[in-house]
Amino acid sequence: MNAMDVLDVLRLGILLALAGVSLYSDLKSRRIYNSVTFPAILAGLGLALAQSLLKRSWLPDSFWYSYLLESAGGMAFCLLVMLLVYWQGGVGGGDVKLMAAMGALAAWPLALYLLVFSTFAGLVIGLSMVIWQGREGVLLRRAFKAEGLIKGRRLEESVQVVPFGAAFGVGVVWTAAMAFLG
What does each C-alpha distance from 37 to 16, 62, 130, 156 come to in angstroms? Predict the structure, then answer.
């Protein structure tokens, strides 16, 4: 196993650890901590820089396009999408930072899959919780009135608060399985 492979495995390990820690803290206290997300962002970008340096391609276009740009692109994409959802009242600030960290660690294009799979998992978890609690009527009324689509609601006013740390954990495992199993 060469140094590049070791760094890829390290990035995956940090991503899985981040998902586990965030799942636990989100379920326990409904919080995702900056002390977890900010170091993960730095780790993602730092490992990408190390991979770019190990590539030893000193041509400017190939150097910056490689790992560092893919990591920053994954982070920026996830950050922008989650900020849009945050401004509509759909997630909290910790969820935004968590997804940015996961995007930096997964890098582009895996960050796109991670976001899609996590969103799908969040949808399934949220709908399951709504059905379990018997709140389908409230959800349908709000959906047909398009409440909250134009003017964002506060997170506390939503039909169901979903622990997105759990959804992101499912998304990470799903993305990792897809990436490594083909």
Answer: 13, 29, 29, 23
The region, left, alpha or beta by phi > 0 then psi within -120 to 50, assigned to residue 32 is beta
For residues 100 and 78, the answer to whether their CB atoms sit within 8 Å is yes
Of the candidates 65, 45, 47, the residue with the CA atom closest to the CA atom of residue 57: 65
Overall average pLDDT of the 156-164 stretch: 59
**Overall domain count for the chain:** 1
Provide the whole-model pTM: 0.79
Identify the helix (H) or strand (E) that includes residue 175.
helix 164-181
Spatial separation of the C-alpha atoms in residues 72 and 76, rounded to whole Å: 6
In which domain, by residue range, is 89 found?
A: 3-181
* Rounded-to-integer distance, Cα 129 and Cα 2, Å: 45
Kindly report, residue by residue over 19-31, the tens digit of the pLDDT.
Answer: 899 888 888 888 8
Distance from chain centroid for Cα 131: 25
Predicted confidence at residue 71, as pLDDT, reads: 93
> Residue 125: what residue type?
I
Task: Report CA-CA distances (Å) from 34 to 64, 98, 124.
Answer: 28, 9, 27
